[in-house]
Amino acid sequence: MTTALRLLNSLPVLYLIMLWPGRFAVQGLFEEWYYPQMMYDTGVWSVRLLMVTIAVSPTLVLINRLGRGRAFGKWLLQRRRHFGLGSFIYAALHLVHYVLETADLTEMAIEFTLLEYLTGWLAFVIFAALALTSNNWAARLLGPNWKRLHYWVYPAAALTFWHWYLLDFLTERVLFWIAIFIGIKAIHTLIKRLPRKRAAA
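The chain above was modelled as a monomer; its predicted structure follows.
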């Protein structure tokens, strides 16, 4: 195996690539950083990795229908949970920055009742449940319920976009990612209707 392939198959390298853009958000936990920028960066990177995670399923279906690229499909399948965990790490950083900036339980309790914050909290709770069960042990323990639980990634994504839309002054940024999300789901639906390519006799 070449060095390039080893790097591609290395989980530490994958996490380094995913989390390197968030190094400023981690640094911002210990130093003075512009709070709105920290919130935007952690939020948008969480969404980017979430869209990558969601796009794996239609990609695998397409590979299966075409009968080509199975090695890449296997790689994607093995990495999907890690893309999801990367998204959750950014969401957790997003929440930590909010808690540290607010630093008032009463204020947070009041904001919790507001739709723009409640949607974010609900999305985070779902993502936390998905992250905690993104392992083989949980899959074996939950059995068929594991797949049903992980379908909640779609409602969680919708709540994330709702939360973002209600709080962002530049709504076109949110609408752009909503369009990508809808596009991924639409493509997934269309691809599933394609006939499977028959294996050669």
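The chain has one domain: 11-192.
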